């Protein structure tokens, strides 16, 4: 029932240059084990794509390949029309890892202002971005005095302030309360509406409803690329969580038969 994603490519344009991401036959090995097994996918610009799957399925590895920090065994990764990791992409692609990358001895404001200055953004834009991640009340606090969730949001603000064309976010909502989580998803929707492409990983399916399209992974394989509505429709389920499980079982049955 569910063919591999590359049998049903998403129509986002006429060639790799039109897509935010164009990945073909990507194979990555980590620690002697295949972490990505022949992935092919395309992601259109100005979209929010959820990268979902259980821990260890290869989400971070795929993100690393997209931002150009992962050695790949074979295949191609084209980002905004250029080879992943190429120099012109540095200011056009933002990557927020699971471990916050901020200067602990600087305040929230100085961290975000520093990244703003690197990308030619103003102090006012830094202040606005701090507001967008819900940290206005903590502007003058040192990063080292913040909670894990707050620190993650500083890291996110440092990436957001650069206004990259492609924003790759590895589990950005982990440790956030439901209100803040909802606000961040609203912010992501605003960014996508303004033309930014977002690739957002999560291992919880309830995030999937915020995404225009889903990449569902398991054991280094891309099980499917489809919209949340298509996932529900194809599995005849009412919850995305159950739908993903149903898809995994259907795929396992296909492999056995
Ligand atoms: N530094 C490493 N050296 C060797 N193998 C690694 C390394 N990092 C990850 N792996 C392996 O690569 C595979 C994919 O890992 P990856 O971190 O991409 O998964 P993930 O889906 O992002 O997991 P999580 O949701 O837990 O972050 C796993 O089998 C993992 O054990």
List keywords for this structure.
257 residues; alpha/beta; 6-stranded mixed beta sheet; 4-stranded antiparallel beta sheet; 25% strand; globular; disordered N terminus
Q: Overview of this structure, please?
A:
The N terminus is likely disordered. The relative contact order is 0.18. A hairpin with a 2-residue loop joins β1 and β2. Strands 6-7-8-3-9-10 form a six-stranded mixed sheet, sandwiched between helices. Strands 2-1-4-5 form a four-stranded antiparallel sheet, covered by helices on one side. It has seven helices and ten strands. α6 crosses α7. It is an alpha/beta fold and 257 residues long. The radius of gyration is 18 Å and the shape is globular. The site of adenosine-5'-triphosphate has 13 residues, from β2 and α1.
């Amino acid at each position: 029932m569910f063919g591999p994603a590359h049998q049903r490519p998403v129509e986002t344009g006429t060639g790799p240059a039109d897509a935010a991401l164009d990945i073909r036959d990507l194979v990555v090995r980590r620690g002697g084990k295949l972490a990505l097994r022949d992935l092919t996918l395309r992601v259109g610009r100005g979209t929010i794509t959820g990268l979902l799957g259980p821990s260890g399925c290869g989400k971070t590895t795929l993100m690393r390949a997209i931002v150009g920090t992962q050695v790949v065994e074979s295949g191609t990764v084209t980002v905004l029309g250029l080879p992943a990791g190429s120099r012109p992409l540095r200011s056009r692609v933002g990557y927020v890892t699971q471990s916050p990358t901020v200067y602990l001895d600087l305040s929230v404001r100085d961290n975000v202002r520093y990244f703003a200055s690197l990308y030619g953004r103003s102090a006012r834009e830094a202040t606005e971005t701090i507001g967008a991640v819900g940290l206005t009340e903590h502007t003058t606090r040192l990063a080292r005095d913040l909670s894990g969730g707050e620190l993650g949001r500083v890291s996110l603000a440092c990436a957001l302030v650069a206004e990259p064309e492609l924003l790759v976010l590895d589990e950005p909502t982990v440790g956030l309360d439901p209100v803040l989580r909802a606000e961040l998803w609203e912010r992501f929707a605003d960014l996508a509406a303004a033309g930014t492409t977002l690739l957002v990983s999560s291992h919880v399916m309830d995030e999937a409803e915020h995404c225009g399209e889903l990449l569902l992974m398991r054991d280094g394989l891309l099980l499917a690329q489809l919209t949340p509505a298509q996932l529900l429709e194809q599995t005849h389920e009412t919850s995305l969580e159950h739908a993903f499980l149903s898809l995994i079982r259907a795929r396992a049955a296909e492999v056995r038969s």
